[in-house]
Amino acid sequence: MRESLMGEFSTLKILVVEDNRTQAESLRYILEKAGHEVMIATDGTAGLDMIMQQRPDLILTDVIMSPMDGYEFCRRIKEDEKTRTIPVILVTYLYNPSDVIKALEFGADNFIIKPFDADCIYSRITSTIQALHQTSNERTEALNVSFSNHQYVITSGRVQILNILLSTYETAIKNNCELQVADERLHYLNAQLQKAVSDLKHANEELHHKNLERGRLETALDRSNKKFQYMGSIIHHILLTQLSSVFHNLDKVRIGQQGGQYETGPYFGKAYELVEKALNIVRITSETLDPMTQSPSWMDLHHLVKNSLSDLSPGMVRIDCQLPENVWINAYPLIEKVFSELVDNSIRHGKTTSTIRFNLEEIQGDPILIYEDDGVGIPESDKKMIFSHEYGLSASHGLFLSEEILSVTGITITETGEPGMGARFEIRFPKGTIRSGSDNGFTKSNNK
Length: 448
What we know:
Layout: H1 2-7, E1 13-17, H2 21-33, E2 37-41, H3 44-53, E3 58-62, H4 70-79, E4 88-92, H5 97-105, E5 110-113, H6 118-134, E6 143-147, E7 150-154, H7 158-259, H8 265-289, E8 297-300, H9 301-308, E9 318-321, E10 327-331, H10 335-349, E11 355-363, E12 366-373, H11 389-395, H12 399-407, E13 412-415, E14 424-428, E15 434-436, E16 443-444
Parallel strand pairs: 1-2, 1-3, 3-4, 4-5, 9-11, 11-16
Antiparallel strand pairs: 6-7, 8-10, 10-15, 11-12, 12-14, 13-14
Helix pairs in contact: 3-4, 6-7, 7-8, 9-10, 10-12
């Protein structure tokens, strides 16, 4: 019978015992594709009945079935003299050492581990049939094996035992290779994941910075819009007040000319002065609101101060500029107008001003530009008011606009002079907005 099996190996009649219909049909497809005749039984009992009716050349059986599992099915086949020579291959997910020993105890001829492929099935069938031919005359003796506190009696032949052990080893090698491939794939995916996480983190940080920058710009834009609206309304009010005063003085001139009641010259002069101030306010405001003048840049401080004095008549006052050379500030170009306004106020309202001094000192670690004159100074009660637009309406110092121009870049200005001893303004620059080409460019002072 075994010789006939080898001679007709290409057309074996194979019984598949499998309670899973999908698995059974998968085995049928693989086996029939190789030219074998396939019978299917859904459990061990049906398989035994089918064997009695139509003897197969080979049996492939699942292990985990009910009510009769694959081990019991195999035992009954191997204990029956009529069927014991039929080779049985267990098809299972199980291949622990205890499973292998148990399979040998019940007389199984080989293993096929799920999930399987066609090449594995063909290889197992070939090796099982070849082993059956080699052990046709082999005499076996029972072998007692103890494993995990269990006793097993194995009656399988040496070739049969070796075949199952080799199949188990082959499965272990295959699984180990697949595990290594999976491990390498996992490392690759992990590296990709780490890169993706890093990229995502970087993107989130960039997005966060962009959101912060956008928020900062929106806040600055909103603040600038409110400031421009505020300045616009104030300038409108200032100009209206100035023009009303011009109209009043011109009206005095008209009445004086008609009746000859008084000298009109002073009123002409006052009207001219008011018009000049109004034009100056319009010019500074226009430059302040012009986007072309709103970009800060690095400028030479000494040259800025010098340029601010270009319209000053020679001999009007003495300018004592003690600013060091090669000191640069990062500010809006309109800061030059601030210096001009300070000089103009000293001359117009200082009364006894004869000398104006510019100096750069370091006070409590911060570089501060000091502006001083020797005029009458500013009364203590007016020190806080001089930067308000209401104060500017009556005195026209223009310091309100000067403070607004400086504040756009964070520069601050305060009046610290003593009344009766001249005006003294401290212009403080934020960190990073002033630099010097000389380490000895600043004069240290303990002035507060």
